[in-house]
Fold these 2 entries.
Entry 1:
Amino acid sequence: MTREMVLYYTPADSPNVAKLKSVLVRMGVRIKNISSEQTGQTIGYLAGLPGFVQMEACAEEGTVGGSDACCNPGLRGSAPPIPCEVLVMHNFTSRRMDALLLNLRRAGVPKIALKAVVTEHNSGWTFYHLYEEIKKEHEAMTPPSGHAG
């Protein structure tokens, strides 16, 4: 079986990063820290899936550097900064996912609102696109606070 991996993005070095990483290490899960420079890369590339290659940022609009994907604005290799933590799980069974979430809670890691699983469907998306999608889903499922209903 392929080893479990977590793609983890955090906008700033929060005090919870060490707790989160210690849980992952204890569980034998590989951690791939995603930097703000990597959010324009595909999930498949970041997760090490076969057939996915690193995308280069385009120098100029309309430049064709051997690959049309390079100059597609949606596939640039760089993206705007993400303001919150994002946790993307790869190769987890539902039982192991439950164990991970339980262990994070027990370790005192505050709930990470934006979580996802690598799928065939989202592996071609950029990390930033995945963030936008799970943010929309989270907002749709979270009741607005302070509004009379």
Entry 2:
Amino acid sequence: MSQIEFTESFRQFEAMLFSFACHLTKNEEEAQDLLQDTAYKAFKYRSMYKPHTNLRAWLMTIMRNTFINNYRQKKRRQTLYDHTPNNYFINSSNRSVYNGGESAVTMKELSSIVDRLEDWLKVPFMMHYQGFKYDEIAQELDIPLGTVKSRIYFARKKLQESLQQMYQSRNLNELLN
């Protein structure tokens, strides 16, 4: 199939593809982008299309896969989309006031609990808290990797137990609510 024939065949399905893109994205601008991505991939991989087969199904499969890949990529990035006029929610963040009183008290309480931990638990826990990776902690303290992981786990458990006792709650979820 020549480039001209492929182009003509693609144009026959363009309206149907746009409709399918609108159905997938629920947004006309995103549907235009999806249609453009699909057209790009269809023309780029035109040599993979087998003549005299269902071109419509081939194009819809490209579109569906492109949509799924884009969705997964957006989900990984945790992108925030603000569809309000002038991006009101994104642009209004500098107007909010942060009240750090509650978190400052909590950090003081947590720091005092961590200070009461035994050194064999406190040192690996604090190193992990400061951003060291498990293998770096193991190398620095000259202990096995599994020991580092278990000590950090036990330190977390002791912190949870201490918080539970401090607030006299049955479980940590009550503290968070």
